[in-house]
Amino acid sequence: MNYKLLGRSGLKVSELCLGTMGFGTEAGWGADKDTSFAILDAFTKAGGNFLDAANIYKLGTSEKIIGEYMSNHDRDYFVVATKYSLKDNISNPNASGNNRKNMMRSVEESLKRLKTDFIDVLYLHIWDDLTPIDEVLRGLDDLIRQGKVNYAAISDTPAWMIAKGNTMAELMGWSQFIALQVEYSLLQRTPERDLIPMARHFGMTVTPWAPMGGGVLSGKYLRGEQGRVKAESNRRNDRSTKIAEAVVAVADELGVPASHVALQWTMSQGFSSIPIAGATKVSQLEENMKAVDVKLSAEHLQKLDEVSKIDLGFPGEFFREAAVKENVFGGFYARIEKRK
């Protein structure tokens, strides 16, 4: 694999991130420890070093498996990203949310499960709409100064709140968010309205989750296969079927699996993007990793864009209309483009 810098940092991570939500067999699905180890072996052999976890994945088993694996390998090779926010202790009212108490408690528990002294990237998992953003930022900065966390990142949070946070962090000299994790795929393009433009402005890398739309974009439902979870069925409708058909058509032209096209699309949108691809079988991972070698032509990208296009709303649609721009600004944008 090639490596990319994560956001406005010097941290080098693989161009594909391994999602570990399926490490463990709780809830009746997932990979056992031996299979998880085999997946990690295959990922590292291919040059992968970027792992995505969370305190609640498989009730903590995901982090435990990663920790046990790293204890027998070079810890510093791996860039381990994990998350805090969601409840992992039903008897403690402060065992959830973005507050400082939960942050510190959750990080200490993650460090134990991961069998490490530091977390490379710590994400706020989901915005709770309760905790002041300055409390979050100061807590993350304290953890970074203590050496328990190297970088701060954020997930599933409104763009305006992230922008407020990064601006405040810059003014206060605190560590800024360097990565943004959101659902983003050909099925879910609404982050293009404000989250992705915000990430580009602040130089943040986007790490899309569900880049294959819960399996819909692999074309498996077109073949009559059934989904495992309700979330997958919620993504199945007339629009998603048309998009999946277009993905399969492009894949057939290229002679690759549809999943490769879906993954590569998220990496070909003109901004820093490292998709998170989960796997519960070595064969799944090996197939996903081949997506980095797929090249989508301008025609392929246009075809996929047209079938999955969304309404950006105001002011996105207003700005997207080149004719309107020229009329309003007297050709200003055209002149700037020529000057470039």
SS class: alpha/beta
How much of the sequence is in beta strands? Answer: 5-15%
Question: Could you spell the SSE succession in H and E letters?
Answer: EEEHEHEHEHEHEHEHHHEHHHHH
User: What is the annotated CATH architecture of the largest domain?
Assistant: Alpha-Beta Barrel
Task: Describe the structure concisely for a colleague.
With 340 residues, the protein is an alpha/beta fold.
List the defining traits of the structure above.
Aldo/keto reductase; 14 helices; NAD(P)_OxRdtase_dom_sf; 8-stranded parallel beta sheet; 340 residues; alpha/beta; TIM Barrel; 2 domains; two-stranded antiparallel ribbon
Summarize the topology.
Elements: E1 3-5, E2 12-14, E3 17-19, H1 33-45, E4 50-52, H2 61-70, E5 79-84, H3 100-114, E6 119-124, H4 133-146, E7 149-155, H5 159-172, E8 177-181, H6 195-201, E9 205-206, H7 230-234, H8 238-254, H9 258-266, E10 276-278, H10 282-289, H11 298-308, H12 316-320, H13 322-329, H14 332-339
Parallel strand pairs: 3-4, 3-10, 4-5, 5-6, 6-7, 7-8, 8-9
Antiparallel strand pairs: 1-2
Helix pairs in contact: 1-10, 2-3, 5-6, 8-9, 8-11
